[in-house]
């Protein structure tokens, strides 16, 4: 009940006369009714307090990737790399995990067709997991399907552009395709997302020399 409604009901009360509703002033005579003072805006309570929208929770993977770009030591970088990879694999269903294990076993046995089939099925179950595409790119690369591998990495990096492993694999594939400029560009991107990546700076230097035609 608002302040305005409370005041109104204190002054006027309903009175039933022969089944008809009439209103009489309770404490005032019919000829000398005193005016009801107007309410000031400050006297009217707001119906509801304005609530600010809840802030979205920060994404743990994005926060870890940000920390990785700012890492000060190689030890810190390795720890953040492991943490980021763990976060990428978070939320996998039991079926997806089993398929990934099968793919890994098949890859070790050089059964690339079986490994790729397992990863195909894993992507059907959880297509949002970019690292699964990276895994299929690795299988395709091992099988000699460079174009298929690059296609997978393109999608993976579109979903997860901060993944240094995808950039490293792309650089490696492009080098084997003898596209040294593309290999160099991918290697440089590794250092953007992971400035202290193992051998990252050395690889950029080596590829730059190859692009420039200098002896390595």
UniProtKB/TrEMBL annotation:
Stretches the record annotates as Disordered: 43-63
Record's signal peptide: 1-33
Sorted UniProt keywords: Signal
Residue ranges the record marks as coiled coil: none
Compositional bias per record (Low complexity), positions renumbered to this chain: 45-54
Gene3D superfamilies, sorted: Tetratricopeptide repeat domain
SUPFAM superfamilies, per the entry: TPR-like
Protein name: Tetratricopeptide repeat protein
């Amino acid at each position: 009940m608002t302040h305005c409604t409370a005041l109104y009901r204190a002054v006027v009360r309903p009175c039933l006369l022969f089944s008809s509703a009439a209103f009489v002033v309770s404490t005032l005579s019919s000829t000398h009714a005193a005016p009801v003072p107007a309410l000031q805006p400050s006297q009217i309570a707001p119906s509801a307090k304005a609530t600010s929208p809840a802030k979205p929770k920060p994404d743990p993977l994005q926060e870890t990737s940000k920390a990785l770009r700012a890492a000060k030591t190689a030890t810190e970088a390795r720890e953040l790399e492991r943490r980021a990879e763990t976060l990428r694999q978070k939320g996998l269903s039991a079926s997806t995990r089993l398929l990934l294990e099968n793919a890994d076993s098949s890859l070790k046995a050089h059964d690339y067709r079986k490994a790729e089939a397992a990863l195909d099925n894993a992507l059907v179950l959880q297509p949002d997991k970019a690292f699964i595409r990276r895994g299929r790119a690795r299988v395709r690369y091992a099988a000699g399907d460079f174009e298929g591998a690059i296609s997978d990495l393109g999608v993976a990096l579109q979903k997860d552009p901060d993944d240094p492993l995808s950039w490293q694999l792309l650089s490696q594939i492009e080098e084997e395709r003898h596209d040294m400029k593309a290999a160099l560009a991918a290697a440089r991107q590794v250092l953007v997302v992971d400035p202290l990546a193992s051998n990252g700076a050395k690889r950029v230097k080596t590829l730059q020399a190859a692009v420039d035609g200098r002896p390595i």
